[in-house]
Amino acid sequence: MRLALLAAAALSLSPMLADIAVADAADDAVKARRAYFTLLGANVGPLAAMAKGEVEYSAETATLHADNLGALSAVMIAPHFPEGTSKDDRFGDTRALPNIWTDFAGFAEKAEGLATAVAALQGVAGAGRAELGGGVQQVGAACKACHDDYRAADF
Ligand code: HEC
Questions:
Q1: Partner of 21 at 20 to 30 A CA spacing, among 57, 70, 100, 133?
Q2: What is the pLDDT of residue 154?
Q3: Residue 7: band (very low, low, confident or very high) from pLDDT cuts 50, 70, 90
């Protein structure tokens, strides 16, 4: 009797566990992509500061951050945007607009635009402050182009 009850309890648990696993996967995806974008920002920030003259220009440091951006822009971000993780699905924890999922080709194109701008930046980051500035501006424009269309201003 006791065993039967335990077995029944275990059975009724399994669908619940499946739900938790799905919730965790969505949570993980949102966390991963937000961490990814944070890392992008953490590499653009020092470059922008150098380009503006707020921080002394260093060819070595500029190249390092540009190369980090090169590695990051090669990451395929699609797995971190599973269905059901837009800001309409998960209020308060993501700014990803639902049109990412209805226009994934357009979204992917913006990611391509970033990769192109970053490749150009890698070519000029070590060449001097003015050259770095031009490259950073292009990268900033590529970030903004995607945010304008696919990221909400607020959570
Ligand atoms: C292909 C589109 C795309 C490109 C290109 C892009 N972003 Fe974003 N970014 C997003 C989306 C979508 C979000 C919202 C993610 C979320 O809230 O789930 C975001 C969020 C962010 C965030 C906030 C992270 C957080 O903690 O919520 C930062 C910072 C950021 N992006 C910086 C950048 C920088 C810097 C670049 C360029 C080097 C860039 N992004 C390029 C789409 C993009």
A1: 100
A2: 94
A3: low
Q: Whose CA is nearest to atom 35 of ligand 1?
A: 41
Q: Tell me: the pLDDT tens digits for 129-138?
A: 999 999 999 9
Q: How far is the CA of 59 from the centre of ligand 1 (A)?
A: 26
pLDDT digits (tens, 9 = 90+) for 87-114: 999 989 999 999 999 999 999 999 999 9
CB atoms within 10 A of CB 51: 22
The length of the chain, given as a count of residues: 155
- What average pLDDT does range 20-37 have in this prediction? 90
Q: Mean of the pLDDT values across residues 35-50?
A: 98
How far apart are alpha carbons 4 and 10 in whole angstroms?
A: 10
Q: How far apart are CA 113 and CA 55, in angstroms?
A: 27
Atom 7 of ligand 1, residue of closest alpha carbon:
143
User: Ligand 1 in contact with 38 (CB < 6 A)?
Assistant: yes
Mutate to test the pocket of ligand 1, among 37, 87, 90, 116 (most ligand atoms within 8 A of CB): 37
Say yes or no to pLDDT of 40 above 60. yes
The whole-angstrom separation of Cα 34 and Cα 28 is 10
Which atom of ligand 1 is nearest to 118's Cα? 38
